[in-house]
Structure formats: structure tokens, C-alpha cells
Amino acid sequence: MPVESDVADVIVSNCVLNLVPNKRAVFSEIYRVLKPGGHFSISDIVLTGELPDKIKSAAEMYAGCVASAINKDEYLKFIYQTGFKNIVIQKDKAIVVPDDILKNYLTDGEIEEYKSRETIIRSITVYAEKPRMD
């Protein structure tokens, strides 16, 4: 980010980071920009399994923040590894893709298989703090 280090008290993001290819670098930049004791609140789309390739490659799914989402555990690992503390998942909600959208990409059999698994696409809101220097 084109700002100095340790300048922000709060950083808020809503469904944007999943579009960035290098999520680890994003969390490093958030850490750098936050003042010690500052925090972030980020809402984003994550996955808890593998999406069918036909969905991953669909432009509509990319625009809907789904195709570029990463595994939830990997997403949270980036936050922990960056050094954030007091990490709290404030929301974790299933995202159900309607059948009329799935039909654009999957056969009836593939839709049945997709729907038979636990919901893969999730919307989460994560809160975390940059440790104070005291």
C-alpha cells in the first residue's frame, strides 16, 4: 500500500482480498500499515473444499468472488503467520449457489454431486489485532 508504516488504527475490507493473487503479501501489508494495537475487520469468501473446475474457470464466479477464493485454513494461517493476535472469526456463513447458476456450468449429475457435499463456499468475517509494543 502506498502509505507509511504504523499509521492506521483500523483497516476494513469487504470481499476484496479473495481477488488478490498473493494473499500472504496482503496480510503483511496490513500488518505493516497498522499501528501497534490497531486491528482489522475483514469479510471475505473462503472455501472448505475443492470447487469443480468448471466453476473455478467461470468469469461469473470470479466476479462473484468465488473462483479466486482459497481454503479457509490457509487463509487463517496467513493471518496467524503474519503475527496478528486475538484472532476471532466473527461470522462464518454458508454460501449456497442457486441451481439456475450451477446449471450454466455443471451437468445435472455434477450438480447433484456438488450439492451432496458439505457447503464448500463460505463467507467469513475475521477480526485480528497487531500486538502492542509494550
Provide a descriptive summary of the structure in words.
The protein is of the alpha+beta class and 134 residues long. The chain has helices spanning 23-33, 53-56, 59-63, 72-82, 99-102, 108-116, and strands at residues 8-14, 34-47, 85-94, 121-129. It has one domain (8-129): Rossmann fold. It contains 6 helices and 4 strands. Strands 1-2-4-3 form a 4-stranded mixed sheet. Helix 1 (23-33) runs parallel beside helix 4 (72-82). The chain is elongated.
What keyword list fits this structure?
134 residues; alpha+beta; four-stranded mixed sheet; 6 helices; 4 strands
Along the chain, the helix and strand elements come as EHEHHHEHHE
Oligomer: single chain
pLDDT under 50 segments (min length 5)?
none
Name the structural class. alpha+beta
CATH class: Alpha Beta
Number of domains: 1
- Assigned CATH architecture: 3-Layer(aba) Sandwich
> How large is the count of helical segments?
6
Shape: elongated
